[in-house]
């Protein structure tokens, strides 16, 4: 994935979702770039914290990143799991967004759509 595409998306996402949050809520987005598979965004909403992105590095595949994140939605043998489009997992203290590398998934329209899914959940 192109770094600039991911950063443009996260900036747009943050700008839109911040309209629905109190001013004291910071939006920290950890970026796990998975190259040709897309990227994983680990989004944490934190009270009285600064907003920003943390680029966690480049990874070979999404499944490896999901194991790193200790997420609770997809467990067991992940070898037959694949992702297309945008996949969202909501947990108590974070949201994990998995996106494939399709340009349409990283557009401003996609960011608005992703935020509205969260706001209306």
Report the uncertain regions.
none
Mean pLDDT: 92
Main structural class: alpha+beta
Q: What's the alpha carbon Rg, rounded to whole Å? A: 14 Å
Largest sheet: 5 strands, mixed
**Overall number of strands:** 5
What coarse outline follows from CA principal-axis ratios?
Answer: globular
Series of H and E elements? HEEEHEEH
Strand content: 25-35%
Adjacency order of strands in the biggest sheet: 3-1-2-5-4
Query: Which percent range fits the helix content?
Result: 25-40%
How far apart, in Å, are the first and last alpha carbons? 28 Å
Count the helices. How many?
3
Account of the 3D structure:
- The model has no long low-confidence stretch (mean pLDDT 92).
- The protein is α+β, with helices and mostly antiparallel strands and 121 residues long.
- It starts with a helix and ends with a helix.
- It has a 5-stranded mixed sheet with strand order 3-1-2-5-4, sandwiched between helices.
- It is 28% helix and 31% strand.
């Amino acid at each position: 994935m192109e770094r600039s595409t991911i950063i443009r998306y996260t900036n747009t996402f943050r700008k839109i979702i911040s309209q629905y949050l109190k001013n004291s809520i910071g939006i920290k987005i950890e970026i796990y770039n998975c190259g040709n598979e897309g990227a994983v965004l680990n989004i944490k909403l934190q009270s009285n914290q600064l907003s920003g992105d943390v680029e966690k590095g480049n990874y070979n595949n999404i499944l490896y990143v999901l194991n790193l994140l200790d997420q609770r939605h997809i467990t067991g043998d992940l070898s037959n799991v694949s992702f297309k489009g945008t996949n969202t997992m909501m947990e108590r203290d974070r949201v994990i967004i998995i996106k494939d590398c399709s340009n349409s998934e990283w557009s401003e329209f996609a960011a608005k759509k992703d935020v509205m899914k969260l706001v209306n959940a």
